[in-house]
Write a structure and sequence with these properties.
By secondary structure, this protein is mainly alpha-helical. It is built from 11 helices and no strands. The longest helix has 39 residues.
């Protein structure tokens, strides 16, 4: 954890990539403490905003791919055994969280790979049920990139905005404060998107019957 703290305090493009890769596996690295501060510095002219988003998204893709490949090849029993192990608990993982992500994937199908990347508690685990279900990797990578890209753009926009109103010594506390609002807002948006697609699917089924 001291290494992660050191990296968070010295953000550059390779560390953004590395930390977001970890965040998309099972290592508890808060993405809002990676992308938003990097965007904050980009607003000050020290980094490039689009490169911040690009490296964050590429890192998320690699981390999600690691989860996907492991789940694809080792299967559910090994995944659950790890989730229930001491190391799994150190990574803030448990069987209940994996089961929750599986249920979300089962309920929403391919759409879950996009929307799941936006939901706290599910976003870094949604690649596991995708691997267990042996989802086509090309589709998985496309949807993961879209979901991770949207999330990183939102976090980058937050960091850019905070640069205009918050001094750097207050950034960490403000990110934690705004992060809660952001999570609730994202969950509400995701729910609306899911409801829209479910309703659209049901309407199509009813029209076919009639």
């Amino acid at each position: 954890m001291n290494i992660i703290t050191s990296l968070l305090n010295n953000l550059n493009y390779p560390t953004i990539f590395f930390l977001m890769m970890l965040e998309s596996t099972v290592v508890p690295v808060p993405s809002e403490l990676v992308v938003s501060p990097a965007a904050y510095h980009a607003a000050g002219g020290n980094m490039n905003m689009w490169l911040v988003i690009l490296f964050a998204t590429l890192g998320a893709d690699l981390g999600a791919t690691i989860n996907y490949v492991v789940a694809y090849y080792v299967g559910r029993p090994v995944i659950y055994r790890f989730a229930n192990s001491r190391l799994g608990h150190l990574c803030l993982l448990n069987q209940e969280k994996v089961e929750k992500s599986e249920k979300y994937f089962d309920d929403h199908g391919k759409l879950a790979t996009i929307t799941g990347r936006l939901i706290p508690g599910i976003r870094h685990l949604i690649s596991i049920p995708a691997g267990l279900a042996k989802m086509h990797y090309g589709h998985f990578l496309l949807y993961t990139t879209i979901g991770a890209g949207v999330w990183n753009i939102i976090l980058a926009a937050l960091g850019w905005y905070l640069h205009t109103i918050v001094p750097e010594d207050q950034l960490h506390d403000k990110l934690l404060e705004y992060g809660d609002y952001l999570k609730y807002g994202i969950i509400a948006i995701v729910l609306l998107v899911v409801i829209y697609f479910v309703a659209k699917k049901q309407i199509k089924k009813l029209s076919k019957k009639s």
